[in-house]
Structure formats: C-alpha cells, structure tokens
Design a protein that fits this description.
Helix content: 40-55%
CATH topology: Aspartate Aminotransferase, domain 1
Strand content: 5-15%
Largest sheet: 3 strands, antiparallel
Structural class: mainly alpha
Radius of gyration: 12 Å
C-alpha cells in the first residue's frame, strides 16, 4: 500500500508541475498543495470555477488559514486513472485561464 501511495504522490506532483501549478513533493500526507498564484484568481474562485467548468473538486488553500491563499489542496487518495483524468481536466482549465 505504501508503494501505491508513493506512485500516486509522484504522479500528481509531476502532473501538477507539468501543467503549470508549481508543487513541492509532500511528505507524510495524502495531499498536494500547488500554487495557483499565476492564475490571478483567489483560491476560492479557482476552486469553484474548476469544479463548475471541469468537474474537479479541490479545497481552496485559504481554508487552512490566511497563508494558504494562492494555493489549492489536491488529494491523491484516488485511483491512478482518476488522478490522471483530474490532471488532464486541470490542464485544460489552466490553459484556458493561463
């Protein structure tokens, strides 16, 4: 199980960085916390629009305090296939609103 979550973690971090959402590799959690600063949107706006336009749910970073603004939280407790699909949809969203 540890190996499976490691694979998911590496997939989501690599994918987020490739689509232009800078992300450090998390250690000890099941969440990635990429930056959305370049989008010009607040974390609430980005999260709501991503859900509405691409049907991908993330948590706005400001839900974790003022320092979380400009970030989103992405869970990787999902199948590899679902993570890949979410990354594809997020990539479309980022390209549209880049």
């Amino acid at each position: 199980m540890v190996a499976q979550y490691d694979k998911r973690r590496r997939l989501i971090v690599k994918g987020l960085n490739e689509i232009g959402l800078p992300c450090f590799e998390p250690h000890g959690a099941f969440y990635a916390f990429p930056s959305i600063h370049h989008s010009g949107m607040t974390s609430n706006e980005f999260s709501k629009r991503l859900l509405k336009e691409e049907r991908v749910a993330v948590i706005p970073g400001n839900a974790f305090g003022q320092c979380g603004e400009g970030f989103i939280r992405c869970s990787y407790v999902a199948s590899l296939e679902n993570i890949e699909e979410a990354l594809e949809r997020m990539g479309r969203f980022v390209r549209r609103h880049g």
